[in-house]
Structure formats: C-alpha cells, structure tokens
Specification:
By secondary structure, this protein is of the alpha/beta class. Helix content is about 40%, strand content about 15%. The protein has six domains: about 120 residues, Roll (Archaeosine Trna-guanine Transglycosylase, Chain: A, domain 4), CATH 2.30.130.40; about 70 residues, Methane Monooxygenase Hydroxylase, Chain G, domain 1 (Up-down Bundle); about 40 residues, no CATH class; about 180 residues, 3-Layer(aba) Sandwich (Rossmann fold); about 90 residues, Helicase, Ruva Protein, domain 3; about 190 residues, Ribosomal Protein S5, domain 2 (2-Layer Sandwich). The radius of gyration is 42 Å and the shape is elongated. The chain binds adenosine-5'-diphosphate.
Length: about 850
C-alpha cells in the first residue's frame, strides 16, 4: 500500500492459507475455504468477531492447507498479503465451505508463527510500510526513470482498450490519481498473468524490483493486444470484443471497488489445454461437437459452481477414452493351441471350441459372431481360459464382475444430471485398459439381479448384440461409442438363471468338473508350481507326491473345480515356508535338543514338522537344509487337520429304504441320498428336505407306479396287502434338508428306494442312479451326466444307472473313469430295479415276462 495509507495492520495476524490464486495489495479475490484450519479461522474470527480488526487476515499464497488439522502445518510462503475480509458466503453443498471475498491491503512478512491450532496466528512485519519511509526520496529520484517508464507502458496499455467502456475510462483516470507505487500491484492483478508471475510480484519487496518485474508483463500484454487487434481489424464482432474487454473487467478491482474476480488464469489455461486435447483427439465428429460445446460452457462457468467440476471430469474422460486406439491382433492358431495347452490341462472340449472361434476370426476378420459363454462349476478355469484367450490374441484383458449387479446404470452409466454420476462399467473398463479392442470377461452373468433401478440384463443385451453395439450409448457419455471391436466372453455357473434374451445371444460351452486324475495332473502341472512360486519356495524345498494330492482331493475337498485344492496347497506351502524360514534362521547347526523339541510338539498340529517319507522319526528339523520337505499323509493331517470328508456311503445303505441318486448343481455333480420309511396311518405321503414341485410330483409318480405294479413285484405293506398305502403312511426324506432340491432326475432313485422299503431288500451300496420316470415306467433322459458320473466316481461308487438315451453322453467321460465304473443304461424301471439290487429284482410269479438285460 502507499505511504499515505491510514491502515496500520495489527502485529499479530491470523493466517489464511491459500494455494489457488495470489492476492496482491490493491486487488480483490474470491477464495474458497474448506480445510479444517481455514474453516476454524472463518468461524471464530469473521463470523464471531465484531471489531474491524477481526476482519483483517494474513493471506498466505502458494501454501495448501492440509485437509485435517491433525496434520502438521506445511511450510508457509514467506510473504503474504494483509487483507480485509469483505464478504463471507457459506454453503453446505457439496460439502461445508465458505467463499471469502478479500481485498489486499499491503505486504507483510512472517516473523514468527505464534500458534498453529485451531488456526495459525503469526507475528508479522508490515513490509510495504517499512519499505516506504526510507525510500520515499529514493523513489522519486532513483526510481523516477523506472516509474516513468512503467507509467508510460500502463497508459499505452489502457489506451489500447475500448475507452467507451466506463470501467476503462475509470482505469485511465486512476492511473493518474493513484500513487505510482501502488500501480505495479494493481496492474499485475488486472492483466493476464499466471499465479507464478503474481507470486514473483508479491515477493518483490523493494519497489525497484517490483517495477522491473512488472514492466515485461505489461509489454507482453501490449504485444498480445496488438496482435489481437491486427487479426480482427476488419470484423469487430461481439465475441471478440468480450475478449478485448476481458482485462478491463478487472479494472474495477482497485481498492474500494469490490467486484467479483474472474476465474483463475491458470484454470483457464487448463481449459484451453483441454480444448486443444478435444480438437486433437481421435474422437468421432459428433462426440467432438458435444465436447466443444461443453468446453464453451466451461469457459463461461465460474469455477466454484459444482457443475464446473462435473463438466471438466466429463471432458477429461472423453479425451482419455480410446476412441481409436487399439492393439494389433496377432492371431496364430498354432501358437494359440500351444498356449492354451500350456496354461490348461484337460478341458479339451472348451479348448477346441475356443480355437475354432479364434480360427474363424482369423479367416473372417470380424467379430460378428456369437458371444462365448463358459458355463460350469466354480474353479474349473473359466476365467483363466478367458485370460488365455486375451493373451493369445495379444489383447488387453479386463474382467467385469456382474455378480449382484442389479442396477442398469452399472452397465450403462448414470445421466450427468445426477450428483455423483459416472460412466458404466463397460466405459470404465475401456478407460482402464486404454484400447478399444480388449477382451472383456463378463463374469457371473447368471448372477445379475433385478431391481427398481431397471434390469441390467436388458442393458447388457445392447452391449452384446453385434448389430447394435457399434453405437453403444452410455448415459454418462451421451454419445455413441463403438464396442464392435471388443471381444466379450461371459462365464456363468448355470444357464438356468441367465435371462432368456441374453442366453439367446450367447453360445454356451459347458465346462464340466474334473476327475480325480485330472485334478492330480492340474495340481502337479499348474497349481503346485504356482503356489511354490507365490510362497518363495522351490521344488528342492517342498515336494508333494501324487498320493498326497489324491489325499487332499478325496479327504479335504469336495468340489468339481480345483479352487479348494488350490487353497489347501497354499496352506501346505505356508506351513512349509515357516519351517524353511525357521530352518534358514537357525542354520544348519540344529542340535539334537531341537529335534527332540520338535518331537514333543507333534501333538499340537500347527507345530508339527511335516514328515519326510521313509523317516517317521523325529529327525525332521535336523535334516540338512538341502533335503526337501516331503508331505506325506501324516504330515497332511498335521497341517490341514483331521480329514473333512469320509466315505460314508456303505454305512448309510445298511438298511432297506435308502438309495443313492445323482444330482446336478451349479457347483458340479453330487450324491443325493433318498430315505424312506413307513408307519401305520391313513395312506399319506410326507415329503421333507426342501423339495421343489417337480420333485414332489416325481415322488407321487413313483408311488403310483409301485402301487400299480405291486403284485407284479410282490411288494406288500406291513400287513401283507398289495395295496401299499392301505393303513400305511410313507415318509420320504432327502437329506441335506437345508438345501433346496428340484428336478425330475430323482425319479428312478425314489422308485428304487421305495421298492427297497416295501420288499425289505437292501439296495446295492455301490450303485448310484439318475433318470426321469413316467407313469408307465419308462426312464427318460436327463442332463448333467458328466458331472453326475464324476461325483459318483469321486465317492468311490462302482455302478451308475443311467437312462438309455443318455448313453451318448458317456463319450465325454474320461477313459479312466469309464474303466473304474460300470454303466447300466435303462429304458424302463424294470431294468433300473434289476441293476440296483443284488441278484436283480425280477418277478418270480411271471418269470417269462421280464428278462433282465444286465
Ligand atoms: P472359474 O472362473 O471357473 O471359477 P478360475 O478360472 O478362477 O475358475 O480358476 C481357478 C484356478 O484354477 C485358477 O488359478 C486356474 O489357473 C486353475 N485352473 C482351473 N482349471 C485349470 C486347468 N485345467 N489347468 C490349469 N489350471 C487350472
């Protein structure tokens, strides 16, 4: 401030930390206050204080205030501007903040920070005033020339502007009436300058430096204006006038004239940068037009408007999206085959279909084909095959988990009118991968939900339909994006819950579960090496023989895939890693006592050293370090605890009225026991075990068929009557009572179970069956044969009874499983019963009629 200023600033000032602009003495600035310390300052000084003095603050530029007051004060900029708070506007949206209007008075320098909390207060030294007195003379004499030169430029600049605008005329008058010393600050805040330049002017404490620093800025502005005027000499349209006047609007920011300041130069630079990016980006014309319109709006918008940030985010996303950026496909079917084979053991059918798909793409070079959908139990490698496909093609891979998604905006984005709106997962995914031809794995499409917010499946239809997806419109983008280059692969556990329209667009490839032998191979080829690697172990440190792997598979896991197996192998690696790390720590100098200790600890399972094969003694830890730790069944028990699953089949079949069925679930095949009992009653049938309608009907069918054939098979109730329900109630139960079961394939099992109950004969304990029945005793085909047969094999059964028309499905079953099991295909219930009971279930009364087909 000039020497004549009557304002003597207080020697202690509360400090307002800012980083978004530089307030110079003599100008006005609007600043947003939202950090903890600044908020405190506004509340206790401006909103509560009553004196004029309490409205004087020290504004420290270039110093971001930490968001919370728990954080330390950052280093403060040395020089600040004492300022008068003229207006405080509070708002709670989008979060609590104040907007302060402050007018700069004079420079000050921080002498000492007196306190930091709740807001910083400092002892300050007023700089402009100190500078003023000793140099008053000097200003006139030594700086005379400099200040004259400065004044000349200032006048030249103002006169280049349109003098008919009142503000410009006022500025011209002010140039003469204000003290020269005040002019550098005022003019710097009016003309186009960056924050950095303003900071330099603020830091120029001596008047000479200040004049020297400001003159180049004035010259630059004059040159700029000259250039501008030259280019539009001929057509003076309105818009350009606005630009020409733009600097003049700041003229009003002289002391006393408190008008709203324009948005920050730096930000407008950003907007210009953004505009340039929009112009140079490869987006299609319609999108560019929308963007340019938004840029135009952005330029006119005050920065404090919430929409400003929204629009900017939108533009940034638009510029970032890979409109035209793609990776080049390298399609070599031979290499792809090798890669798929290397990454995945077994799953021949899936690999074959994937290769076919890739081959067609190679020949046809376009993607208009069905979307592949891998359907199978968890952990059978669906996701990892998807990843391999991306790898073979040399494309980016991105997984979109759809499980539980029940809002269509998740797929298609929110309209930009909503607060917190954002693009959908597809557009987000594209932004993440940065190319427009990635492989997108739509995981768990069968678990899409539905809610009031619309049906995400319907939105997916548009994404997946090759006819439509070249102009997929995300609500947030509001312009079309071409998805036709994206390769979509879907995965699901079951097709039953995939919406029909969606299923229609996909080619379902069933991925069945693995046999024990396949699991052992997968474990040794892929899982164990991967786990060893993840745990920093080497095969020289840990060895898991196949017999142990089989032990894990049969006793510790019951699954179609290999995910639990993988986890159990991980658990073994962890346990061994501890031992190896301990061993390294102790070095090879283990003494006998250690070995004995290890023996003593064997009772506690986690302490126990895995036993090396062939040495069940206590020498585990005493082994030289180069000996691998071998996991045998004993060590397995120590690490994983007692076996979780035991073979229980034969035990449960020790009385009449029990039979084993085979069920298919999304998690793979499973054994399903059926139990029946009879008691005195009035001919009622009770069914328990959470059954669906179809299953209940199967039970009624089974009873009806048995009643009508009771004589033929010599089935009687307790009192010897052929009317099976006479004075008899029947109860059928399907254990695992908490699991809902439905489907027709239990028909043959229910018949067998009831036949056993009424004949008093035991069903063979090594036989399982599946098949739908009709009232006339025919056996109809059912689905999921491979999974069901694998479940029977897993459980150690020997014979499987299937519908005759399912014979073709047996081809899918691996050779070793086929060798271990004997299959009986049945077309009618006679054949089923004959195969289910030892010695057949033939009828003595009319032997000629029924020939066993076994
Ligand atoms: P899904 O998607 O079917 O639930 P994942 O693809 O996540 O299953 O597979 C789980 C784990 O099992 C992965 O680490 C995968 O590498 C492994 N895996 C599954 N099947 C095979 C296989 N045939 N060969 C090698 N690894 C497999």
């Amino acid at each position: 401030m000039s020497s004549g200023s009557p304002i003597q600033i207080p020697s202690r000032l509360p400090l307002l930390l800012t980083h978004e602009g530089v307030l110079l003495p003599g100008s006005t600035m609007r600043t947003s206050v939202d950090s903890a310390r600044n908020l405190q300052l506004v509340r206790s000084r401006l909103l509560k204080g009553t004196s004029l003095q309490s409205t004087i603050l020290g504004v420290i530029p270039n110093t971001p205030d930490p968001a919370s007051d728990a954080q330390d004060l950052p280093p403060l900029h040395r020089i600040g501007t004492a300022a008068l708070a003229v207006q405080v506007v509070g708002s709670n949206w989008p979060k609590p903040h104040y907007t302060l209007l402050v007018t700069g008075l004079c420079r000050f320098q921080i002498v000492q920070v007196l306190k930091e909390k709740p807001y910083p207060v400092a002892q300050v030294e007023q700089l402009d005033r100190l500078e003023e007195f000793p140099s008053a003379l000097q200003t006139r004499e030594e700086l005379g020339e400099l200040s004259e030169q400065f004044y000349k430029y200032a006048v030249q600049l103002v006169e280049m502007l349109d003098m008919s605008v009142p503000a410009v005329a006022k500025l011209r008058r002010l140039l003469d009436s204000l003290p020269r010393e005040a002019l550098p600050d005022i003019l710097t805040s009016i003309i186009r300058t960056s924050n950095k330049e303003k900071l330099q002017i603020l830091d120029a404490v001596s008047l000479e430096d200040r004049f020297k620093a400001t003159i180049p800025l004035l010259v630059r502005q004059i040159e700029g204006l000259k250039l501008l005027q030259k280019t539009r000499k001929h057509k003076q349209d309105d818009e350009k006038r606005v630009i020409a006047i733009r600097p003049m609007r700041r003229v009003t920011h002289v002391p006393g004239a408190l008008e709203e300041e324009e948005e920050e130069e730096e930000d407008s630079d950003d907007v210009v940068l953004l505009e340039r990016k929009v112009r140079t980006s490869s987006m299609p014309e319609p999108a560019r037009r929308v963007c340019l319109k938004e840029v135009k709006r952005l330029k006119k918008m005050p920065q404090s408007m919430p929409e400003y940030a929204l629009t900017r985010n939108y533009l940034e996303l638009m510029v970032e999206l890979p409109w035209n950026k793609s990776t080049t496909d390298r399609l070599d079917i031979r290499a792809a085959r090798v890669l798929l084979d290397n990454d995945h053991y077994a799953m021949e059918k899936l690999k074959k279909r994937v290769l076919e798909y890739l081959a067609v793409r190679q020949l046809k070079n376009n993607l208009k084909g069905p979307i592949l959908c891998f359907v199978g139990p968890p952990g059978v490698g669906k996701t990892s095959v998807g990843r391999s496909v991306a790898k073979t093609l040399g494309r980016e891979f991105h997984r979109i988990a759809l499980g539980g998604v029940c809002d269509q905006s998740d797929i298609r984005g929110h309209r930009r009118t909503y607060v917190g709106s954002m693009p959908g997962r597809i557009i987000n995914g594209l932004k993440t991968v940065g190319v427009n031809n990635p492989v997108f794995l739509l995981d768990e499409v069968d678990k899409l939900g539905k809610s009031l917010q619309g049906d995400p499946a319907a939105a997916l239809l548009e994404v997946l339909d090759p006819e439509q997806n070249h102009n997929f419109t995300d609500h947030y983008l509001n312009v079309a994006f071409d998805l036709s280059q994206v390769l979509f692969i879907a995965t699901a556990n079951t097709t039953a819950t995939i919406p029909a329209a969606l299923l229609d667009r996909m080619e379902v490839i069933q991925v069945p579960g693995y046999t024990q032998e396949e699991k052992i191979e997968i474990a040794h080829r892929h899982l164990i090496p991967k786990q060893l690697d993840q745990h920093g172990l080497t095969p020289q440190q840990l060895q898991i023989p196949p017999a142990t792997t089989l032990g894990i598979i049969t006793r510790y896991t019951r699954e179609a895939g290999v995910r639990s197996l993988d986890r159990k192998l991980g658990a073994i690696c962890r346990a061994v890693a501890v031992k190896v790390a301990e061993g390294q720590h102790r070095g090879a100098k283990l003494e006998r006592t250690d070995a004995l200790e290890a023996e003593g600890g064997r009772e506690r399972s986690e302490d126990v050293e895995p036993q090396p094969i062939g040495d069940s003694g206590a020498a585990g830890l005493a082994l030289p370090p180069e000996m691998p730790i071998l996991i045998d069944l004993h060590a397995l028990k120590d690490i994983l605890g007692p076996p979780m699953y035991e073979m229980e089949v034969s035990e449960r079949l020790s009385q009449p009225g029990v039979a084993i069925g085979l069920a298919w679930t999304p998690l793979g095949g499973e054994l399903m026991f059926v139990e029946a009992s009879r008691m005195d009653g009035e001919g009622q049938l009770t069914l328990t075990g959470q059954l669906g309608d179809v299953m209940k009907e199967s039970a009624h069918l089974a009873i009806s068929w048995l009643r009508s054939n009771a004589k033929k098979y010599h089935l009687t109730n307790a009192s010897g009557s052929f009317d099976l329900l006479d004075n008899t109630d029947i109860h059928l139960h399907f254990p695992a009572g908490a699991v809902t079961k439905d489907g027709p394939s239990a028909g043959v099992t229910i018949v067998t179970c009831l036949a056993s109950l009424f004949s008093g004969r035991l069903v063979r304990s090594d036989v399982a069956m599946t098949g739908e029945i009709t009232l006339r005793g025919l056996v109809l085909p059912v689905g999921g044969i491979k999974d069901k047969v694998l479940a029977a094999h897993r459980a150690g059964l020997k014979r499987v009874i299937l519908p005759q028309r399912n014979e073709k499905d047996l081809e899918e079953i691996p050779g070793n499983v086929r060798r271990d099991l004997s299959f009986v295909t049945a077309s009618c219930l006679d054949e089923v019963l004959n195969a289910a009971f030892d010695g057949g279930f033939s009828v003595k009364a009319r032997p000629g009629l029924l020939n066993s087909k076994l």
